[in-house]
Amino acid sequence: xxxxxxxxxxxxxxxxxxxxxxxxxxxxxxxxxxxxxxxxxxxxxxxxxxxxxxxxxxxxxxxxxxxxxxxxxxxxxxxxxxxxxxxxxxxxxxxxxxxxxxxxxxxxxxxxxxxxxxxxxxxxxxxxxxxxxxxxxxxxxxxxxxxxx
Length: 149
Fold this sequence. Notes:
Order of helices and strands: EEEEHHEEEEEEHEE
Strand content: 25-35%
CATH architecture of the domain at 11-43 and 86-148: Beta Complex
CATH class of the domain at 11-43 and 86-148: Mainly Beta
Distance between the termini: 45 Å
CATH topology of the domain at 11-43 and 86-148: Beta-clip-like
Number of helices: 3
Shape: globular
Largest sheet: 3 strands, antiparallel
CATH superfamily of the domain at 11-43 and 86-148: SET domain
Radius of gyration: 16 Å
């Protein structure tokens, strides 16, 4: 029997307020600037799916890979099982994000975050060599309009 108390839910996925038709991740607790919002322990991007292999995958799986995984000229960096993605994949982009990713892969609060706020990160800053542009509609006052991933 495990004597540790069961972990408290600290965020929940639900419809995004930033990206219509997509899922966002919302705080169920308050976070203070500098808090680890989610740690790197669950990250798995150990599978490179080449673009050639990608073409052989069913449509629903392709959609999840495109929506959640990092793309490069070589292919898609994906978890071994797309059904076991880290909750941090549900952080949506904002040009004025609530979190950043530290050198260890932890998502850290850039400012105090209140219960109910949608958790965001600047996806361009996550990428070592951002190359693929997409139109940003995050709605922040600092929106760059074009963001590269």
